[in-house]
Amino acid sequence: MKQQNDLRSIARILIAASFASCVVQLDLTIVNVALPHLAEFFSASISGLQWVVDGYTLGFAVLLLSAGTLADRFGARRVFILGFVILGATSIAIAFSRSIVELNVFRIAQGIAAALLLPTSLTLLRKACDGNARLLARALGIWAAIGGASLAAGPVVGGVLLSVIGWRSVFLINLPICAVGLIIAYRGIPARMDEAGSRQLDLKGQLLIVLALASLIGAAIEYRNLGWHHPLVWGGACVAVLSTCAFVWLERRIAFPMLPLKLFRNSRFSCPLVFGFLINLSFSGVLFVLSLYLQKARGYSAVHTGLAFLPLTATFIFANLAGGKIAAWAGSRVVMIGGALIAGVGYASLCWLGPHSGIWQMIPGFVLIPAGMGAAVPAMTAVLLSDVDAMSAGIASAVLSTARQVGSALGVAAFGVMVGDGLSSDILNGINLVMLTSAALLLVAALTASITAPEKEEQLANVRTGA
To answer: Which InterPro entries is this protein grouped with (predicted)?
Structure first.
């Protein structure tokens, strides 16, 4: 009877965690197809549109490193419920914003809510499974699959909502998801999940991370409008550098650092971070530019744009599943290298997009990019976690997620510069450079994976074969 009750409790927690994964991942991609509509409604510049995407990823990135500590300090259940409340409230605020600046402020707050939800949902699942590795693996598989499906569905759902209701619905769709997730979490997650721990919150480190990332991303986005000589741009870059240096200095000296710097000495930790940063930088930047290309330069409707993105996003799901099996046979490092090269070829195949390119010319790239990335991402995560102890696994995952979110934000900022003011002619002139740059970045990612220290099994195989 006790075991049956435990399974019911795990099922309720898994459902609540899956709703969290769904809404967080959906918000990463659903907004891209709405960008031209937001530009028209608010008379927004290209930098204003960049903030719509980057505001969310910035808020997400700055709190990821502390989210686990907050859950341990104040109770995972409380933090999880708070995440749903904030995300729902900010979605309403975004939908009824009166200016693009107001909208972007609430998008940052929405990203903070996402940072409270996603890592805490994993904490709740780990606690619920209570050391049962097989049960946890099954739960995480369901959790990841729902997140992946939501990520893939974002552009399609967004396109339909835009065509039928309007741009506000792209944000208000979060309300029923948050409401159901909140009810299940409140009623279904037991109070014992709120037991407070003793981990110390590194407030100074958290503030320095916020300052560093906000200054860096802000300077990158506003560079196009203001120019390098503007105080906000060069000042932001200087603040980012100084804040990062201060953060490193602080983390070396305190007893309970947010980020143990010793982890970076291992190439099997540091190389996957660079790898994840590069693949997210390229993909998020390309998704931003393609949304503008299809709607503003080619005249696609929101629905047609969403459907055009379907192979680009949906292939991720199948590639994720295949990537794990291939990695078990060939080794994670090999899959990282191969996946990066395949995605790079996909970007290269889109280098010749023009004003009259047919959708059939885009499909090979739209399949190769997620096929390579989808296979490489699980392998990258496996490499990063393989050489860290159990106590460091949580922070290692958080650092990887942060690196990827920062890459996403900088990709949108950097590639936005390449399409000028977002006019049809600017987009057509810049999209080829965007794709060529992405292909080059994936080549660098493959080289980074190649210098990662080999797995122990790979080393033994080399010894046996005399390699």
So the answer is: MFS (IPR011701), MFS_dom (IPR020846), MFS_trans_sf (IPR036259)
